[in-house]
Amino acid sequence: EDQVTQSPEALRLQEGESSSLNCSYTVSGLRGLFWYRQDPGKGPEFLFTLYSAGEEKEKERLKATLTKKESFLHITAPKPEDSATYLCAVTNFGNEKLTFGTGTRLTIIP
Amino acid sequence: EPEVTQTPSHQVTQMGQEVILRCVPISNHLYFYWYRQILGQKVEFLVSFYNNEISEKSEIFDDQFSVERPDGSNFTLKIRSTKLEDSAMYFCASSETVNQPQHFGDGTRLSIL
């Protein structure tokens, strides 16, 4: 069974203080690893897809990287509007479903 | 930008009643999904739907649940006889193909009394 573990559960940063969120996964055959952002009371908002180890994707202050066992979401010089829960999810070649981790709740303090 | 829309945003129902949650996926998408998120827990897969039939379902998706695409735009989740433990946020998602990102609606909060 696919498993996704995210750490830390919660992270508080000062505005401008860079950090990284971790997503470790166990999957029988990785089809894709997905990062989503979720604001309170809203649905997950798609950020990135990574398909193979070594791949990197960037969008504004966020950069996602992938190895054979884990993915990192690096946030550089965050702003208060980056505060949200960041979710990691995987799919494998045997099915279509997303298997989610429990997320990292990120708070950026002005 | 195209988006997935869900109605209602909040549904309150008595235990044992039937409920239908509605979704309008993104128009050129071919794969449709339902997930749920119990308060404080992770997002869980319920069912996927392609070419007018269920392609995959989880253990949660038992005989009380059904899905339908009644026309070219709507995708519905029906719970036949609701239980207290069905209280959760239900998300609909859609994707162009099986390997493309799934895009989510803002969910329906289902409260069973």
Give the structure's gist in a few sentences.
The complex is a heterodimer of chains A (110) and B (113). Chain A contains no helices and 11 strands.
Q: If you had to describe this structure to a student in words, what would you say it looks like?
A:
With 110 residues, chain A is mainly β. Chain A has no helices and 11 strands. In chain A, the strands form 2 sheets. In chain A, strands 2, 4, 5, 9, 10 and 11 form a 6-stranded mixed beta sheet that branches. In chain A, strands 1-3-8-7-6 form a 5-stranded antiparallel beta sheet, with no helix packed on it. Chain A is globular and about 45 Å long. The model of chain A has no long low-confidence stretch (mean pLDDT 96). Chain B has 113 residues and is mostly beta strands. Chain B is 0% helix and 50% strand. Chain B has no helices and 11 strands. Chain B has strands spanning 5-7, 10-13, 19-24, 31-37, 44-50, 53-57, 65-68, 75-79, 88-95, 103-104, 108-112. In chain B, strands 2, 4, 5, 6, 9, 10 and 11 form a 7-stranded mixed beta sheet that branches. Chain B has a 4-stranded antiparallel beta sheet with strand order 1-3-8-7, with no helix packed on it. In chain B, strand 4 and strand 5 form a beta hairpin. The radius of gyration of chain B is 13 Å and the shape is globular. Chain B starts with a strand and ends with a strand.
Topology:
The complex is a heterodimer of chains A (110) and B (113).
Chain A: E1 3-7, E2 10-14, E3 19-26, E4 30-38, E5 45-50, E6 56-59, E7 62-66, E8 70-75, E9 84-92, E10 99-100, E11 104-109
Parallel strand pairs in A: 2-11
Antiparallel strand pairs in A: 1-3, 3-8, 4-5, 4-9, 6-7, 7-8, 9-10, 9-11
Chain B: E1 5-7, E2 10-13, E3 19-24, E4 31-37, E5 44-50, E6 53-57, E7 65-68, E8 75-79, E9 88-95, E10 103-104, E11 108-112
Parallel strand pairs in B: 2-11
Antiparallel strand pairs in B: 1-3, 3-8, 4-5, 4-9, 5-6, 7-8, 9-10, 9-11
